[in-house]
Amino acid sequence: MVNGHLRSFALLVLFGGFGLGFAQAQPAIQPKADITQVPVAAQPSAYFDAEAATEAYMAMIPPEATARSNAYFEGGYWLILWDFLYALVIALLLLNLRWSARMRDLAERITRFKWLRDAIYWGQYLLLTTVLGFPLEFYEDFLREHKYGLATQSFWPWMGDQGKGLLLGLVLGALAVVLLLAIVRRLPRTWWIWGAVAALGMIVVASVITPVFITPIFNKVTRLNDPKITVPILRMAHANGIPANDVYQVDASRQTTRMSANVSGFANTMRITLNDNLLRRGSPEEIQAVMGHEMGHYVMNHIPKSIFFSAVVYLVFFAFLRWGVDWTLARWGTHWQVRGITDPAVLPLVFLLAGIFFFVLTPVLNTETRMHEKEADMFGLNAARQPDGFAQSAIHLSEYRKMRPGKWEERIFFDHPSGYDRIHSAMVWKGENLELFEKATGQPVAEPPAAH
Ligand SMILES: [Zn+2]
To answer: Measured in angstroms, how far is the CA atom of residue 251 from the centroid of ligand 1?
Structure first.
């Protein structure tokens, strides 16, 4: 998403020489067995057992691959903490060294228009925090991704994306800051309610424009013309009430080896998109299984439901913000030279409080997402009827996700069901629908005839 790209050009010169040595991606450790061959224990038989079938799929993942993806995924738990602490330190520096107050003073000297002062403050703030945040961003999004063989971009193209993200952040962020500060000034008593409403409105607009306007800034989106791929997908879409007539592909391999897909937009912007990694590496069964899952998100209105959930979260956050800003400014406002909530110099404090709030809420937000993902899994199994394709996709995703977490580990850190859980659900589904697979030797039966 946009946030991930909000970084800088400014340390280009400093770090320029560095990245060049990390240009090639190390490929992920591949299973030695062909994962499109259904293992014996997962083939239909009178003795079919979902647990044994699940273990047979799990056994296809080499132990060294599991060790590597566990290390990557568990490192991600720590990054949640380091990201939080790093942002906390930056915010406290900006306030305590009065850099925030100075950026505001400069904006006030440049113009007398309040909205323009807010936008100028935002520009300085974003540039400064991008520079200060660059070392962690460089490690997290470049070095670490290359170390685990998940990134495909060499240093300069990566910096190019960072630069585009920064420009987007300057423009879209300025619009957001100007709007929110105008609300705070106009509505001194109820700003926290209207601020939450405005923030929600901006999220909705962002989710509508992202696939059509933002994604093409970073990647090439093209129409997919291979009927072997598109016909089964569109047939499944129409059977499930999705009014799409085209399938698109996006060249995600420009940045990453991860496989993904989505169904996005409303009405006229509605589209089905597959990334090229999925197209290149996934079997037809796997592609259908993944698309069934993505269609589940759409059919079960997960985006509107998430927006409703966000409305509640934002309202609580803005109430916390109102209290938190009053409380901290009463103590340190004079020292920081921050005048109040209507002063743009308050922004580092707002981000600091947001950091604390959303850090604490991590397990709640993950659980909300994970519940939707579980629903989409079950929908996808029923819609695509490709449990083995679904197991294949879980194995592919195991390149960067831990397959067998502990119960609490899954509840706190996982925003998707674990790989083990996904294969297990697929094998339970298969066990209850064995007659669909009995004709061929373990391979899914042929497609049902076309409806038209
Ligand atoms: Zn999903």
So the answer is: 19
Measured in whole angstroms, the distance separating CA 119 from the mean position of its chain's CA atoms is 27
Q: Kindly give the distance from the C-alpha atom of residue 416 to the centroid of ligand 1, in angstroms, as a whole number.
A: 7
Please spell the DSSP secondary structure of 242-265, one letter per residue. Answer: -----EEEE-GGGTB----EEEE-
Which residues are found with C-beta within 5 Å of the ion, ligand 1? Answer: 373, 376
**Is the pLDDT confidence value at 6 over 90?**
no
CA 285 – ligand 1 centroid, Å: 17
Distance 397 CA to ligand 1 centre (A): 12
Question: Structure tokens of 312?
Answer: 């509640």
Tell me how far the alpha carbon of residue 373 lies from the centroid of ligand 1, in angstroms. 5
The confidence band for 209, taking pLDDT boundaries of 50, 70 and 90, is confident
Prediction pTM value: 0.85
- List, as one string, the DSSP characters of 34-89: -TTSPPGGGS--TT--HHHHHHHHHTTS-HHHHHHHHHHHHHHHHHHHHHHHHHHH
- For residue 417, give the H/E element and its range: none
Q: Six-digit token pair at 350?
A: 């707002």
Report the separation in Å between the CA atom of 231 and the middle of ligand 1, taken as the mean of its atom positions.
22
* Mean pLDDT of the 77-85 span: 95
Name every residue whose Cβ is closer than 8 Å to that of residue 171 and which is 6 or more positions away in sequence: none
Residue 94 binned pLDDT confidence (cut-offs 50, 70, 90): very high
Q: What is the distance in A from the centroid of ligand 1 to the CA of 227?
A: 24
Distance CA 29, CA 149 (A): 9
The Å distance, Cα 91 to ligand 1 centre, comes to 34
Q: Would you call 303 helix, strand, or coil by DSSP?
A: helix
CA distance 255 to 152: 5
Q: Give the CA dihedral 318, 324, 330, 331, nearest 10 degrees.
A: -160
Query: 217 alpha carbon to ligand 1 midpoint, in Å?
Result: 23
C-alpha 289 to ligand 1 mean position (Å):
11
Range of weakest confidence among 157-161, 310-314, 445-449:
445-449
pLDDT digits (tens, 9 = 90+) for 46-63: 999 999 999 999 999 999
